[in-house]
């Protein structure tokens, strides 16, 4: 039996590990065939995504589509080699979640006003890590700097895992990370949460104030879904969608996502495609206004 390859366009670690494991295990069981996770990081999640766009559309190659590769990248990259709508058959939304600014416990900041103050005390500013250029967390850093006039230096990594490792080690003092990725480290005390980018405090972390509560009018959400190459037969897409939504409807999956600050998705292929179309429209002006570009 031919296994299904699930391409994860990020390095191991962070939210992608949680999402990929949840999908691979649950979907594999329901399909009765193994799902093999393949990490292909690089170029803001566009490298692995482009690989899947060019793959044989037979249902045996899937990608963990996401806000970076399928909503932000078209406005950020001038030479993107795929179209997020035309070149994929979208299957369903897996999860959506806010981001958080987290700091090494030894760092002096206890909240976002401290970040602004400390960024102004030196001539260089503060280094802030993210999972990579072109991610929603990269854009959150840019928008935060614009909103507060804080001098922040973006330090891109090839995934949330390597970035978090350096924040915990004190190599970089701060990180902009998706909440599910940072959740375990926040609870363990290996990093301190300074603020969450949700519209309201998150029930999983009620003690962490929002950006807005601290005077920074920013709300940012990242998301992950499942997609296949364009041309994948309709019955295959429909079957994958049904099984994915069944996996996400299971109490264990919903509880696990909620525990780390995520919300399980439940969209049809048509609904997920419409969602991506709306996200493209939402992020394009934000990217343009930020002035962020990636060569």
Fold and architecture overview:
This protein is an alpha/beta fold and 295 residues long. It contains ten helices and ten strands. It has two domains: 4-97 and 221-290, D-Maltodextrin-Binding Protein, domain 2 (3-Layer(aba) Sandwich); 98-214, 3-Layer(aba) Sandwich (D-Maltodextrin-Binding Protein, domain 2), CATH 3.40.190.10. The protein has helices at 15-31, 46-53, 67-76, 112-119, 136-148, 160-169, 179-188, 234-249, 251-259, 269-290, and strands at residues 4-8, 35-39, 61-66, 88-103, 126-130, 152-156, 174-178, 192-196, 221-229, 263-264. Strands 1, 2, 3, 4, 5, 6, 7, 8, 9 and 10 form a ten-stranded mixed sheet that branches. Strand 5, helix 5 (136-148) and strand 6 form a beta-alpha-beta unit. Helix 3 crosses helix 10 (269-290). The longest helix is centred in the last third of the chain and has 22 residues, at 269-290.
Spans of at least 5 consecutive residues whose pLDDT stays below 50 are: none
The tally of domains stands at 2
Number of beta-strand segments: 10
What is the CATH third-level topology name of the largest domain? D-Maltodextrin-Binding Protein, domain 2
User: What is the CA-based Rg, rounded?
Assistant: 18 Å
Structural class: alpha/beta
């Amino acid at each position: 039996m031919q296994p299904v390859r699930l391409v994860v366009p990020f390095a191991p670690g962070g939210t992608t590990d949680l999402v990929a494991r949840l999908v691979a295990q649950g979907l594999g069981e329901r399909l009765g065939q193994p799902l093999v996770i393949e990490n292909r990081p690089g170029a803001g999640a566009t490298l692995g995504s482009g690989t899947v766009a060019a793959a044989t559309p037979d249902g045996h190659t899937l990608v963990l589509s996401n806000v970076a590769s399928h909503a932000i990248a078209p406005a950020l990259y001038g030479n993107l080699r795929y179209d997020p709508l035309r070149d994929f058959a979208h299957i369903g939304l897996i999860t959506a979640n806010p981001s958080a600014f987290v700091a090494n416990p030894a760092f002096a900041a206890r909240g976002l006003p401290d970040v602004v103050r400390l960024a102004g005390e030196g001539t260089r500013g503060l280094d802030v890590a993210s999972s990579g250029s072109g991610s929603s967390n990269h854009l959150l850093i840019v928008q935060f700097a614009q909103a507060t006039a804080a001098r922040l230096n973006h330090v891109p990594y090839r995934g949330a895992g390597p970035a978090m490792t350096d924040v915990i080690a004190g190599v970089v003092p701060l990180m902009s990370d998706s909440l599910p990725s940072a959740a375990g480290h926040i609870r363990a005390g290996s990093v301190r949460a300074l603020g969450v980018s949700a519209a309201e405090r998150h029930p999983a972390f009620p003690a962490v104030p929002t950006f807005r509560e601290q005077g920074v009018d920013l709300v940012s959400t990242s998301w992950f879904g499942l997609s296949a190459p364009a041309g994948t037969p309709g019955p295959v897409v429909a079957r994958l969608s049904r099984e994915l939504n069944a996996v996400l409807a299971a109490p264990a999956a919903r509880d696990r996502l909620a525990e780390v600050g995520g919300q399980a998705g439940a969209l049809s292929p048509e609904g997920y495609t419409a969602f991506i179309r709306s996200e493209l429209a939402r992020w394009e002006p934000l990217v343009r206004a930020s002035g962020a570009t990636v060569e």
